[in-house]
Write a structure and sequence with these properties.
InterPro entries: DNA/RNA_pol_sf, Retrovirus_Pol_polyprotein. This is Reverse transcriptase domain-containing protein. The chain is of the alpha+beta class. Helices cover 21% and strands 22% of the residues. The protein has helices at 49-56, 86-99, 132-137, 148-153, and strands at 16-26, 31-40, 114-119, 125-130, 156-157. The strands form two sheets. The protein has a three-stranded antiparallel β-sheet with strand order 2-1-5. A two-stranded antiparallel ribbon has the order 3-4. A hairpin with a 4-residue loop joins β1 and β2.
């Protein structure tokens, strides 16, 4: 199909979009119909934000395995949130909790990482967490993701009626 959408790559360079097609993408417990854009001269396929968001949240829980030598880390003093940003930080944390990205912890915990608030150019705030100490203790797993080309080959094509 003809594509009227402008796509850009690194450095905001325009990508040469040749066309698009509809494709059903699926994971173990979700599926989503997405527009797949065909780009001339693209060396590696890209999965866009809409597809990632549609397929990203699953119903299963995931446990991060820690090494046997892991020692809990906790900040003795939390980083301060600037007072002018406090309301925006509370609003962003509430939004993230409603989305299921984070959850409240109402009991003592051995692990505690520092939160850093970064103001965005549009006036919103970005919540960042320093997981450096935790990451030192995480066991690395080997789950190579299939190439996008491989996933597209398995893609189920269909035509939507206009």
């Amino acid at each position: 199909m003809k594509a009227n959408k402008r796509l850009s790559g690194p450095g905001n360079t325009n990508l040469n979009v040749v066309g698009k097609f509809k494709c059903m993408l699926e994971t173990k417990d979700k599926f989503s119909v997405q527009d797949i854009y065909v780009v001339k001269g693209l060396s590696k396929p890209l999965l866009g934000r809409p597809a990632i968001q549609a397929l990203g949240k699953t119903k299963w829980t995931y446990t991060i395995a820690l090494g046997l030598d892991a020692k809990p880390f906790s900040l003795s003093t939390p980083r301060r949130v600037p007072l002018p940003l406090m309301d925006k930080v509370k609003a962003e944390l509430t939004r993230m909790e409603k989305l299921g990205v984070i959850s409240k912890v109402d009991e003592p915990t051995e692990w505690c990482a520092g939160m850093v608030v970064v103001p965005k150019s549009n006036g919103d705030v970005r919540i960042c967490i320093d997981f450096t100490k935790l990451n030192e203790s995480v066991k690395r797993e080997n789950y190579p993701l299939p190439a996008v080309e491989e996933s597209l080959v398995r893609c189920k094509f269909f035509v939507l009626a206009n």
